[in-house]
């Protein structure tokens, strides 16, 4: 599952769990983005903080793990590089599914090497409450949408709540609230 995870929240975790159940997946590997080039105009927290929060949030689930491939690769993050690395590491016998939000998938035709992407993995878009996907002309059979139960949480809302002193308990796992406090993340309302 690819995302910026700034911070990871229960919407991401429910989405991963639902998609894993839907496709009977053995494991979900969370891959925090290194440099999200399509968010270049936004302030994004340090990759190491986003990685550690993802580890904390997923630690208790034996079927969830976290990969450093995107944060360890220099330069902007392209999913084609992510999938090439993961596919090489896991071998040819593994069926790869790339999970992300349906809103992100709607932009997939602008991603690097889009045609090759569809040869490496099946793409799954988690539909968030209130978001409708306008099919931008995705190839048939290569993309699935899975509806996620009503959890209208976003990372931006979590950041804004922290910046304005509102609680984020129960929107994110307890350890994430504590990590954000400890590191003083999201204190500035401009992010
Ligand atoms: N509550 C949710 N339900 C389903 N999908 C979600 C939910 N929240 C996030 N996603 C999806 O997970 C993917 C990765 O999430 P990302 O890290 O960008 O979080 P986000 O909450 O969308 O962040 P931001 O609010 O900063 O844009 C995104 O493509 C997003 O659409
Ligand atoms: O490959 C690309 O060009 C590309 C462009 C935009 C987003 N992505 C990936 O899509 C996933 C969701 O991104 P985001 O910005 O919605 O968190 C994440 O894994 C990104 O690395 C990938």
TrEMBL record:
Organism: Streptosporangium oxazolinicum
Function of the protein: Catalyzes the reversible adenylation of nicotinate mononucleotide (NaMN) to nicotinic acid adenine dinucleotide (NaAD).
E.C. number: 2.7.7.18
SUPFAM superfamilies named in the record: Nucleotidylyl transferase
Protein name stated in the entry: Probable nicotinate-nucleotide adenylyltransferase
Keywords noted in UniProt: ATP-binding, NAD, Nucleotide-binding, Nucleotidyltransferase, Pyridine nucleotide biosynthesis, Transferase
Enzymatic reactions: nicotinate beta-D-ribonucleotide + ATP + H(+) = deamido-NAD(+) + diphosphate
Membrane-spanning ranges: none
CDD domains: NMNAT
Family to which this protein belongs: Belongs to the NadD family.
Residues in Cytidyltransferase-like domain copies: 1-161
NCBIfam families documented for this protein: cyt_tran_rel, nicotinate (nicotinamide) nucleotide adenylyltransferase, PRK00071.1-3
Enzyme class at the top of the EC tree: transferase
PANTHER family per UniProt: NICOTINATE-NUCLEOTIDE ADENYLYLTRANSFERASE-RELATED, PHOSPHOPANTETHEINE ADENYLYLTRANSFERASE
InterPro entries named in the record: Cyt_trans-like, NadD/NMNAT, Rossmann-like_a/b/a_fold
GO molecular function ontology, one term from the record: nucleotidyltransferase activity
Pathway where it operates: Cofactor biosynthesis; NAD(+) biosynthesis; deamido-NAD(+) from nicotinate D-ribonucleotide: step 1/1
């Amino acid at each position: 599952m690819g995302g910026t995870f700034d911070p990871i929240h229960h919407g991401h975790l429910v989405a991963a769990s639902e998609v894993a159940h839907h496709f009977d997946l053995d494991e979900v590997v969370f891959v925090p983005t290194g440099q999200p080039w399509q968010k270049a105009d936004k302030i994004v927290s340090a990759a190491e903080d986003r990685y550690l929060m993802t580890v904390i949030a997923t630690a208790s689930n034996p079927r969830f793990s976290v990969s450093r491939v995107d944060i360890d690769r220099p330069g902007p993050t392209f999913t084609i590089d992510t999938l090439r690395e993961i596919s090489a590491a896991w071998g040819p016998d593994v069926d790869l599914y790339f999970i992300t939000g349906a809103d992100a998938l709607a932009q997939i035709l602008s991603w690097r090497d889009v045609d090759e992407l569809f040869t490496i993995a099946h793409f799954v878009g988690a539909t968030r409450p209130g978001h409708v996907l306008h099919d931008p002309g995705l190839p048939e059979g290569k993309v699935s949408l899975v509806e996620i139960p009503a959890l209208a949480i976003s990372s931006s809302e979590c950041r804004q709540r922290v910046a304005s002193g509102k609680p984020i308990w129960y929107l994110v796992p307890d350890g994430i609230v504590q990590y954000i406090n400890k590191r003083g993340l999201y204190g500035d309302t401009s992010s």
